[in-house]
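FAQ: What does the model actually see?

It sees only this:
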Amino acid sequence: MMLKLIKTFIAVYETRSFSKAADQLFISQPTVSVHIKQLEEQLNVKLFDRNGRMFLSPTLNARRFYQHATQLLDDWQEATASLDLTTENTRTSISIGASQTTATVLLPKIIAQLSKSTLNSMNLKVEMHNSEEILAGVLNKQFDLGFIEKPITNDFIVRHTLAKDQLVLAGNLASDMWLVREKGSGVYHYMQQYFKQQNIVPEHFLTITNNDIIVKMLSENIGKSIVSSQTLPKNMSFIKLPDSFNRDFYLINHQHNNRPEIQDFIVMVEKIAKTLL
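And it is asked to produce this:
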């Protein structure tokens, strides 16, 4: 139970918000409030002051406790990870969250260049989510690493630029039907940027939470969309967009995730990515 309280404290400290912490941890806001109250009772200190209705300010005790809390959580994760090891087969477990374009375009190229011995020494687990969900997952230690294409920044996240990608306007260019990704995805961010630049207010659009489905619909001459040029079939019509739509692929990790095997993997990925630029 204490670990749950510490995880909740870290999320609230980093987001300065009960509601944002609840979203990160996939629990309710009242549960976050209960966890913080229980932790304050256990420690016999006040951890947060309210500045207005929405913003929380950590107390001096909270600032002192935060560094110890993150270290405690890291130590616990290392201790539990060690239980998966046997004397005959020591494999490193690394959990990865990948946004849809990085999962289908970038990540396979990187994994393909890892040596067989490296792959045999790892238990890689990959889940596909949108960029905002991956950020939340890295912050709450659900993922060790995140591969995203949205230029997200956060005080507790280290972001590494890996490779380039070109976005294009593709599909039935005469259609008034737009196929758009959901809020929180990297492509949604750039599509809203395009609408703003072109003074477009789409009257007809479909929200689709999967890039592969969008490309399939474009192949059937259904609507138009902004997508990665690397995901398109060879015969599909498209228009190259301005240089501001030349985006980067990123690798993100929590600044307090200092496990040597994670740092070594990041170095390997960055080295491989340089060959893909």
